[in-house]
Design a protein that fits this description.
8% helix, 17 strands, mainly beta, 66% strand
């Protein structure tokens, strides 16, 4: 599902806050979103450093290369702004813009076809995306519900590459002082998607007589969280992240624009600290497992890949700081 996993969960998870109020509003929705997803705040900047790892790859189903990535880092920046809302605040239009820079430094690489070992130049890639999202808050069967539709356009440093879209609907199934369960469905309007739609599920549970709570979002995360020190919060668990960017290739086997799509499972610890109600920083670290790393022709489904890479687990650290212009509490 590529980057759609994150985008739809931003809308999906916010329904849990609505379940806590008799007459929930868009203000409550916004607070729930930015609390769980820093990159949805007005401004957000993150830097990630991944440790060295070995990899083995195939091209068109045949052994291609084995090598080592000595260093890999990412820089991300995001800007989000709601620009229209009805008087009731139940319908909102919002725009977002995201930029990512990735840098790779390689070690020795062995080519199976030529039986030669060589060094590859460092690789730098740029990726950007813009989105327009319409969100409507209503009720269904007497329960709070959110309907959302998003259109996105993305590309690299050279030009616009693809236009995508998706829509979702979410409903609260259960709400008690300690437990909230929601469910919904995501419809993907993207020819590269393996499936046209997928179910969504969240469970948030606060343990009895404990400062800990569990935050489960299918298919993205399982976290156990609690407040730590004044204005701080610690989280332990696992998160599923997707990374992608475009490649302009011109080799004997691959010519044209291709997409790299990588699925990562990050396990570790996160500490967040609020300097002010509007300014929040975080640091996290742990083990990164690359579940899948594939290259496809632009717009092709990920199961029709031309390149497949297996990579060893690696350590990682990530730092970020965000500013939420509209937070006054």
């Amino acid at each position: 599902m590529k980057s759609k996993i994150f985008s739809v969960l931003v809308v999906f998870i916010s329904i849990k806050a609505m379940a806590q109020e008799k007459e929930p509003g868009m203000k409550t929705l916004g607070k729930a979103i930015v609390d769980k997803f820093p990159t949805t705040r007005t401004f957000d900047v993150q830097y990630e450093q991944l440790g060295p790892s070995n990899y083995d790859s195939e091209l068109f189903g045949n052994k291609f290369e084995r090598g080592r990535v000595e260093s890999h880092n990412r820089f991300k920046a995001a800007f989000n702004l709601p620009f229209y809302a009805t008087k009731s605040k139940r319908f909102v239009l919002a725009a977002s813009l995201r930029y990512k820079y990735e840098s790779y430094e390689f070690g020795d690489i062995y080519n199976y076809g030529t039986n030669e070992t060589y060094r590859r130049e460092n690789q730098d890639v740029h990726f950007w995306a813009g989105a327009l999202t319409a969100t409507y808050m209503a009720s269904l069967f007497g329960k709070p519900a959110i309907y959302s539709a998003t259109a996105t356009v993305d590309g690299d440093e050279e030009k616009l590459q693809r236009l995508k879209g998706f829509a979702s609907g979410v409903l609260v199934l259960k709400r008690t002082p300690s437990t909230t369960i929601t469910a919904g469905i995501l419809v993907l309007l993207d020819p590269s998607s393996i499936v046209p739609m997928t179910p969504l599920l969240t469970i948030n549970h606060k343990f009895k007589n404990s400062k800990w709570d569990m935050d489960f979002i299918l298919p993205q995360r399982l976290l156990f969280r609690r407040e730590l020190l004044e204005n701080g919060r610690i989280s332990l668990g696992t998160e599923l992240n997707t990374e992608s960017f475009y490649l302009n290739l011109n080799s004997s086997n691959l010519k044209g624009v291709y997409e790299l799509n990588q699925l990562e499972l990050k396990s570790g610890i996160t500490y967040e600290y609020s300097f002010t109600p509007k300014l929040i920083a975080f640091a996290k670290g742990g083990i990164n497992n690359v579940v899948s790393a594939r290259i496809t022709e632009k717009g092709e489904r990920t199961n029709r890949y031309v390149y497949d890479q297996k990579e060893d687990a690696q350590g990682y650290v990530r730092f970020g700081i965000s500013y939420n212009l509209f937070n006054r509490k």
